[in-house]
Amino acid sequence: MDNPSEIIVTLDKYLDHDVRLVLYGRGGLHLGFENSPIAWAHTQDVDGIIEATVWEKLSEDKQFWESIEATNNELSGKGLYITHLFGEEQVFLRRDWTEHLVPIRHPSTKHLKLFRPATIDLVLTKMMRGDDPQDMEDAAFLIRRDRINPDQLEEAFGSANLTDIEELHDAFDRAKPLVLEMAALNTP
Amino acid sequence: MAVLNVYIELAMKLEESSAGPYTSSKLLKKIASLGLEIPDDLEKLAVVRGLRYYDTGNEGDQLRQNAALQVSTDRLSNAELAIAMLSPDLPGENAAAVQMRQRIAAAVLSASDVDAADLAALAIEERCVPIVVWIATCGADVEPEHSFWTELTDRLPEPELVLSAPHPTRFFAMSGIDKGVKRTTRQWIRPNLAPAENC
Q: From chain A, which residues contact B within 8 Å (Cβ)?
């Protein structure tokens, strides 16, 4: 079993009720796209975004947090983790990102209801480290796969929530020309 | 005289090429003499020495069986391994591969058996001060209580600009939510094995 699936299946095993979780990062990309690069299957952690509408209830869900801890304890020997969770305000996403979520259907889970952001929102998440080579490789795959063009990106930039941290704004500005250039290849 | 200079230059080049690669790096020559393939075995050795985070192919157990990678820290210290991965004399590759190696090196050089003074001396000798200072600066920001980082930068000259270096967040694992509370936690990535367990 690939690493992201193993992490998800393990977490699902510990839960005793349904939980909605949006995945991103390489783990979310691997589970959310078919024929994804092999490197994505080898990631050792799964990153999740907690939607603002879900946060209050989830923050008080003791059984969920105990399940997270149990998952990390069980998998730490293999170097696998699901500790990287973020509130939606901590991640670059369009303001209406929750209206465009894509269900993740593999692996099969009993309690976890999994989603990933729309591809263009995932591109935005890959811009948080500026011109980081690994993130830019991932962005290139996403842009190419969904044939995202520069106009679509510019529209997404205009509606993106970039958080208040200036360093992240600088990173975003560094990544912009690179992703626009990738998208230009999709323009006939 | 001009003809003589050409012959001298040619003789010097022939001498250089017959001495093997990495002639300007004493450290890489040492590593090559240990039978390690450069650069691939450097990353594998880091995994064998407990850097599970970067064992992305789950090959750790298999690598530990590989006789060629049974190089103890007595023969090649973690400081030397880290600096080797930061050497400007390594074969040129794409930016992603170079930065991945820098990330692995950042983890190895933070191993508990690495001495700041030794590491600084190696960084100067192997001409990789800028990237080591960058890593140490990031380390001090994540772990201000860990004196290793300032001990390291105190021993290094003011560097020139680093042309290519990983984003700080590539050196540590980070989460924005910790046990149901919104707070950012950062954990520097370092090898898991205790020094005595290193091969």
A: 3, 39, 42-45, 50, 58-62, 64-65, 68-69, 78-79, 81, 83-87, 90, 129-130, 132-134, 137, 171
User: How many residues make up chain A in this entry?
Assistant: 188
- ipTM of this complex: 0.85
CA distance A12 to A104: 14
Higher pLDDT, B160 or A175: A175
Alpha-carbon span A43 to A35, nearest angstrom: 15
How many whole angstroms separate alpha carbon A185 and alpha carbon A166?
30
Collect all residues of chain A within an 8 Å Cβ-Cβ radius of residue B99. 132-134
Are A102 and A32 within 8 A, CB to CB? Answer: yes
CB A104 within 8 A of CB A32: yes
d(CA B106, CA B43): 12
Residues A9 and A109: beta-carbon distance below 8 Å: yes
Q: What is the pLDDT of residue A68?
A: 92
Q: Do B56 and A133 touch (CB under 8 A)?
A: no
Q: Kindly report, residue by residue over B58-115, the tens digit of the pLDDT.
A: 777 788 888 889 999 999 999 999 999 999 999 877 888 899 999 999 999 999 999 9
- Summarised one tens digit per residue, pLDDT across range A132-170 is 999 999 999 999 999 999 999 999 999 998 877 777 888
pTM for this entry = 0.85
Confidence of residue B22 (pLDDT cuts 50, 70, 90): low
Question: Average per-residue pLDDT in chain B?
Answer: 85
Q: Which residues of A touch B173 (CB under 8 A)?
A: 45, 81, 83-84
The C-alpha of B3 sits at a distance from chain A's nearest C-alpha, in angstroms, of 47
Q: Per-residue DSSP letters for B9-48?
A: HHHHHHHHHHT-S-TT-HHHHHHHHTT--TTHHHHHHHHH
